[in-house]
Amino acid sequence: MAPSADVVRKTVDAYVEAVAHGTVDDILALYAEGATVEDPVGTEVRVTEESIREFYAVLEPLEQSAELLTCKIASNSAAFHFRLVSKFGENTFEVSPIDVMEFDDDGRITSMRAYWAPEDLVQTSGN
Amino acid sequence: MAPSADVVRKTVDAYVEAVAHGTVDDILALYAEGATVEDPVGTEVRVTEESIREFYAVLEPLEQSAELLTCKIASNSAAFHFRLVSKFGENTFEVSPIDVMEFDDDGRITSMRAYWAPEDLVQTSGN
C-alpha cells in the first residue's frame, strides 16, 4: 500500500529542511535501507549507504537555506521543485532542482533522482 | 548519446503547446515508437499507441491554454512543471502537474510520467 499523501509530504518537508540545516544523519534517517540516489540524473546511481553519506557530507558544513516551491504527490511518489541557497565563503550559489522520490509504506525514501543541469547552478552574490 | 538540452527543450515546448492547442496527431508526433505514458503516476502504464491516443483524445476538443513554469533537463531526461487551463462549457479547471520525460537520441519522448493528485485539479471559474 502506498503511504498517504500527508506522510509523503512530511518526508519531503523534512528532507528540504535537513538538506539545508541538518546533518548527514538527519538526511539519512529519511531514507529507507537499500535506497538509491541519482543526482543529477544521468550520473552514476549511488546504491550504498556509504556513497549516499559521501554525497550529502559535502553539504553539511555549508551555511544554507532552502525553500519548497512546488510539491506534487502521486501514489508512492513525489516530484518537487525546491530552491537551495548555499554560501561558500563570501560567495552565494543557488540551484533549484526538481527532485523525484519514491517512498516505502512508512514514508521513507527508497529512491531519489534529481533533475538539474550544471548551468542551473548560478552565483547570486560574491566575487 | 543523449540528445542536447536544446533538442529536449524544443520537444518539451512543443509538447506543452500541443497539449493545449494541438491535435492528438500533433502530440503523438512527439513520441517515439514504443513509448509509454503513466498519467498520473500510480495508474496503469499505457504501452500501446492506441491507448496513448485514447488518453490525449479527451483533451483535443477542449478550449485550453498552457504555460511552462519550470523545466529542468538532465542527460536524456526532463522534469517540468506546467499549468494547463481547460474549459468545459462554462467551467474552467486548472491543473499544474510535474511531468518527467525520457527522450531518444532524436529528442522524441520515450516515456512520460505525470505527478499530480486529483486534489491538484481545481475549478477556477464557473458554477
Describe the structure in your own words:
2 copies of one chain form a homodimer. With 127 residues, chain A is an alpha+beta fold. Chain A has one domain: Nuclear Transport Factor 2, Chain: A, CATH 3.10.450.50. In chain A, 24% of the residues lie in helices and 43% in strands. Chain A is built from 3 helices and 7 strands, in the order H-H-E-H-E-E-E-E-E-E. In chain A, strands 1, 2, 3, 4, 5, 6 and 7 form a 7-stranded mixed sheet that branches. Chains A and B meet through strand 2 and strand 3 of A and strand 2 and strand 3 of B.
Outline of the structure:
Chains A, B: Pfam families: SnoaL_2 (PF12680). Helix content of chain A is 24%, strand content 43%.
Would you give the CATH topology of chain A? Nuclear Transport Factor 2, Chain: A
Annotated CATH architecture of chain A: Roll
CATH class of chain A: Alpha Beta
Task: Quote the beta fraction of chain A.
Answer: 35-45%
Name the biggest interface: A-B, 26 and 25 residues
Multimeric state: homodimer
How far is it from the N-terminal to the C-terminal residue of chain A, by CA?
51 Å
Global structural class of chain A: alpha+beta
Q: How would a textbook summarize the main sheet of chain A?
A: 7 strands, mixed
Mean of pLDDT of chain A:
96
